[in-house]
């Protein structure tokens, strides 16, 4: 029985995985660069007699805690922004200072926001990780459907959506194999299996087989959606063994 991913699916999967890997690497490099800048800024202000608030990679200097609290009341800074306290000569956050907690109407929320920022000085880093995780999950689901959709029969809705493609493919089969028994079986994800006798398929001269498979593939692919990497598989009607395949997305024909 036929099994395993199709050639076209493998190529597109590799390309998409490479793009996601590139996005992840660039994201990681940007975050690492940001953290290095923040670390350098923090080290440069050690021993300062002024209050320092970091907003991203911008350092804002204040002469007193009252001025910093005024910035907070004006919503120019938040409870999770890194703050240099000259009294203790140490970096902290606004939310960790009792003076700021008294300013908030909900101190418990302020402390929760402070705890969530522990160890993360980069704004948007946590959000970015969530987005990357969701994108990776979506990619995994999409790849799973693209790889294994051919292993499941199409449901009634998919069968109705591919009626035009089925008619076109049956017509192409009749032209390519006029004296052979052929059947088609729509599969999940816009895939389809064409069943024909191996002897009838091999009666087509080998130099002409690629063109025949291409014609069958186009008859189907021109009438279906390619979102899930639809493909056409030619199988032996007796054993189910795959004889050839056609990728709708890249237009590649593969002969066994």
Explain the overall architecture.
This protein is of the alpha+beta class. It contains nine helices and nine strands. Strand 7 and strand 8 (242-247) form a beta hairpin. Helix 1 (7-44) packs antiparallel against helix 5 (125-148) and helix 7 packs antiparallel against helix 9 (206-221). Mean pLDDT is 80; it is low at 1-8 and 110-125.
Structure at a glance:
The protein is 49% helix and 17% strand. The chain has 256 residues and is an alpha+beta fold.
Map the helices and strands.
Blueprint: H1 7-44, E1 51-55, E2 58-62, H2 65-73, E3 82-85, E4 90-93, H3 98-101, H4 107-116, H5 125-148, H6 156-161, H7 163-176, E5 182-186, E6 192-196, H8 198-202, H9 206-221, E7 231-236, E8 242-247, E9 253-255
Parallel strand pairs: 6-7
Antiparallel strand pairs: 1-2, 1-3, 3-4, 5-6, 7-8, 8-9
Helix pairs in contact: 1-5, 7-9
Largest sheet: 5 strands, mixed
Strand content: 15-25%
Tell me how many strands there are: 9
Cα-atom radius of gyration:
31 Å
Taken in chain order, the helices and strands follow as HEEHEEHHHHHEEHHEEE
**Looking at the chains present, what oligomeric state does this protein adopt?**
single chain
Identify the strand order in the major beta sheet.
5-6-7-8-9
Number of helices: 9
């Amino acid at each position: 029985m036929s099994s395993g991913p199709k050639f076209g699916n493998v190529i597109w999967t590799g390309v998409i995985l490479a793009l996601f890997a590139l996005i992840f690497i660039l994201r990681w490099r940007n975050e690492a660069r940001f953290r290095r800048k923040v670390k350098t800024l923090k080290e440069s202000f050690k021993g300062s007699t002024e209050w320092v608030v970091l907003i991203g990679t911008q350092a804002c200097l204040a002469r007193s805690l009252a001025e910093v609290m005024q910035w907070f009341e004006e919503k120019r800074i938040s409870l999770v922004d890194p703050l240099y306290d000259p009294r203790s000569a140490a970096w902290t956050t606004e939310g960790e200072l009792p003076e700021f907690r008294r300013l908030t109407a909900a101190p418990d929320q302020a402390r929760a926001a402070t705890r969530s920022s522990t160890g993360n000085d980069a704004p948007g880093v946590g959000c970015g990780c969530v987005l990357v995780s969701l994108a990776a999950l979506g990619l995994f689901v999409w790849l799973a459907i693209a790889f294994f959709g051919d292993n499941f029969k199409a449901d009634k809705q998919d069968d109705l959506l591919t009626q035009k493609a089925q008619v076109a493919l049956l017509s192409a089969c009749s032209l390519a194999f006029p004296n052979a028994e052929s059947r088609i079986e729509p599969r999940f994800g816009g895939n389809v299996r064409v069943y024909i006798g191996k002897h009838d398929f091999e009666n087509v001269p080998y130099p002409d087989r690629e063109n025949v498979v291409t014609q069958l593939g186009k008859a189907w692919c021109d009438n279906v959606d390619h979102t899930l990497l639809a493909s056409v598989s030619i199988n032996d009607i007796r054993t189910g063994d795959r004889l050839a395949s056609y990728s709708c997305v890249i237009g590649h024909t593969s002969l066994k």
